[in-house]
UniProtKB/TrEMBL annotation, chains A, B:
Protein's UniProt name: Probable inactive 1-aminocyclopropane-1-carboxylate synthase-like protein 2
Gene Ontology BP annotations: amino acid metabolic process
Annotated segments matching region Disordered: 1-40
Pfam families for the chain: Aminotran_1_2
Keyword annotations of the record: Pyridoxal phosphate
GO molecular function: pyridoxal phosphate binding; transaminase activity
Xref: CDD domains: AAT_like (cd00609)
Length: 488, 488
């Protein structure tokens, strides 16, 4: 199967010839697709209809979310659509839908009262913020009781990050981001903020500046900051994720403190995304929230984000900010006007987060056990592929998060982002979506994030497809190696 | 009661001395309050913490939403807080909470399935967009069957307007807006879009250019467009509301067509807000949706917004765009990433909008009858006040929407926006929130929008407070007149 042909099917559907619902007519998207030509009349019409920024945002979206759009229009279903896309590219926990459905259908959830139907407090209903403060106090292991006044609820972690970037940075200001870093915030930064994210590359191999694979050393941060200043960039913050995404690792407590001290020394805000804090499924690993620290080096410049991922309810569309900085809370408030969450959803969320007995006795043990099992299954399949095809597949992930960061650069010839894209498209040919390293701003081609928190039957099918794609890629790789030998 | 003292209470609570939850410490807000001084150290800290745009958005918000913030922290309750704020300033229908609660608690509403818990289609779940298309086809009286492909769902009408302005306009582009116009969109335009809203003043009095009070004549639009062009402004669109807000009137079909033709002649987009289309409670009034027209002059540049107001569920946080323009749908899609609605809310909304039997036989007749009654009650109270105080109170509203646009300029001496603010604060002293003309970009001081869709007991209490404030204002007015006589 040719990789370019393989992806033509969803593109056709999107271009309006399909019968499915995703058949929007995205002229904008076509422009961005490789090989697509835009006629003069189309361009004129587009420029008359859409603003420049409208075209820019669309183009960025459709070049980064092609797979997602295709998936929405052609999702795998065991019976109804067994040839549809399996999506191990987006990160959402699908392992506990049964538990969550059961909990959400209980009587205490279906409650309506007048304030839930009316305009809310733009920071989130006080009853929910109080519950969130209690929840974070407990699960982050905070030495002090956290306060509802420091909580802001918006309709996704990305919306929280976007609003925070608006409030802390002016256009053209910059934020340091160790990469690979998850693509959600990278896209969010594009939409409104005009904030530049400066990647601080953390490499996979040991070098002079990289004493451990994927370890963010303070020296790298210092160097990146210095380089940015040399270029007259105004660096306002440092963006971190702990547990890391896509690396699937947690920060050591000492490292965390070092990052916070570095930020304080340089008067940088630290935005720390702790989205997967309850998805540490290996019991030997200890997660340290910044909110657990006895004292924060710079509490007014430390801002924590948490959201829906730990409960597998990305469809709830909520994200939470916790910050000790009252001015930031105050300045974030107006953003609730355009990014708020429905009252009935806020109510359910309160019931959910407040049911500590269920979370501790039912949800977390079962969820962690299922994550462990799915993770183990994928590792086993990767080892089988190594044996089958006789090449080493290295990967990161030590037992937290929903994903494994896999090194497939041995299958690229040459090892370039063009060839990474070829392999990515080969997965798509097999109706399997992974996310590729380039979308994480990673500088080494050949890495992919594989999300494993999927039902066993679908995960099995996905790994079968993965194996088929790898087999095909191996043949392609051999062919290229032979051609190289002939030409050299 | 002194008007400045009167408003100091909520401000104090907001500044952090209160015990309530609204006690954020908004230095930003203090800056904006009349008479508040900002110390150098405060200013330095703020400028170090927040971005310039963060300060700007906050300042705009807290100067326009002071009343709302006060209300959220000190809401009236018959038993628990009978001295709390009554809010006839924001527009939300509180008359049918009983009906809505009953409907939302029925069994068909509390349903969970996997896709509702997961990442959605950013345009809105297809099942809901299909229902919206059917709903609009029927209630807008569309001659063709509307298509789900032309529907975009975001998390409020304001978010829809904001995204639309992003997609159709570049920064500094302009949109014509007949004023008075409701403040929601005006605030939305401030947050992200940087689009200039050019007011086209529609006056209350008959003049050479105003042959009818509050009538938007094409000549005015032509003149405003010409003036804007003379100033080298790029005018991209025309923003309309039908039914009008705050005027409480509907557009005649012929006028509507004229506006659309004017827009087509000048290659302007028309964004038309039909939010109150089902809140026309006087049966003799006929509402014409643009979607009911046999043919639109420029379908690719005509975009309709509808939302939660007709059902009194502003807390659902949803807004809908219907546009025939596929490119606009396509370009709006990425905005769902930061403005989407939770799956469970989308499901309930689908059940609600699809229950035509309940809407037609139960909800609309009862809602319209209650609106009519509340409207009639307020009119009666206004007439009683006229008799009591011996001055004429004129107002607009012919039987649609949730509000009356009231002329109180007879009580201002002199008739300025400063004196309008004095009267506004006098209402606040009496713990009554109305919204004043200036926030609708209206050029004549002395007009207020009074929202009457409130429970009878609260409406009675609110009108008592209104009367007390008017009485006090009358005394103040007499005093000022006497002083004027002495000094002249």
């Amino acid at each position: 199967m040719d990789s370019n042909q393989g992806f033509s099917k969803p593109s056709e559907a999107q271009a309006g010839t399909g019968t499915g619902d995703t058949s929007q007519a995205p002229l904008v998207m076509q422009r961005d697709q490789p090989g697509a030509q835009q006629s003069d009349s189309e361009a004129t019409f587009l420029s008359q209809t859409l603003s420049n920024r409208g075209v820019k945002i669309s183009t960025f979206y459709y070049s980064n979310f092609q797979d997602y759009e295709a998936y929405q229009g052609d999702r795998y279903h065991t019976v109804l659509n067994s040839l549809g896309f399996l999506n191990l590219g987006i990160s959402e926990n699908r392992l506990c839908v049964d538990l969550m459905t059961e909990r959400l259908c209980q009587n205490d959830m279906n409650y309506i009262e007048e304030p839930l139907l009316q305009y809310p407090d733009w920071r989130g209903h006080p009853f929910l913020r109080a519950e969130v403060a209690k929840f974070l106090s407990y699960y982050c292991g905070s030495p002090i009781r956290l306060n509802l006044r420091n909580v802001v609820l918006l309709n996704s972690c990305c919306a929280v990050f976007s609003a925070l970037a608006m409030v802390l940075c002016d256009p053209e200001d910059a934020v340091l981001v160790p990469t690979p870093f998850h693509s959600g915030f990278l896209f969010s930064a594009q939409m409104y903020t005009q904030v530049e994210l400066i990647p601080v590359h953390v490499g996979s191999e040991i070098t002079n500046t990289n004493t451990q694979p994927f370890e963010l050393m303070i020296g790298k941060l210092e160097q990146a900051l210095l380089e940015a200043k040399t270029k007259n960039k105004k660096v306002k913050g440092l963006l971190l994720a702990n547990p890391q995404n896509p690396l699937g690792e947690v920060n050591m407590k000492e490292s965390l403190k070092e990052y916070l001290k570095f930020a304080k020394r340089n008067e940088l805000h630290v935005i720390i995304d702790e989205t997967y804090m309850l998805s540490v499924f290996d019991e030997t690993i200890i997660f340290h929230s910044v909110l657990s620290l006895e004292s924060l080096p710079d509490p007014n410049r430390t801002h924590v984000i948490w959201g829906s991922k730990d409960f597998g309810i990305t469809g709830f569309r909520f994200g939470i900010l916790y910050t000790h900085n009252d001015d930031v809370v105050s300045a974030m408030t107006p953003f609730g006007y355009l990014h708020s969450v429905s009252g009935i959803t806020q109510y359910k969320l309160r019931r959910l987060l407040g049911d500590r007995d269920w979370i501790n006795r039912v949800y977390l043990p079962i969820n962690h056990s299922r994550l462990q099992e799915a993770y183990g299954y994928v590792i086993k399949r990767l080892h089988e592929l190594e044996e089958q095809f006789g090449f080493k597949i290295t990967f990161r992930s030590i037992g937290c998060g929903l994903y494994i960061w896999i090194n497939l650069k041995r299958l690229l010839e040459p090892c370039t982002f063009e060839e990474e894209l070829v392999l990515h498209r080969r997965f798509l040919d097999h109706k399997l979506i992974l996310s590729r390293g380039k979308s994480y701003m990673f500088k080494e081609p050949g890495w992919f994030r594989l999300m494993f928190a999927e039902h066993s039957q679908r995960l099995r099918e996905a790994m079968d497809r993965f194996g088929q794609a790898i087999e095909e890629q191996k043949q392609y790789w051999i062919q290229k190696m032979l051609e190289d030998e002939v030409t050299s």
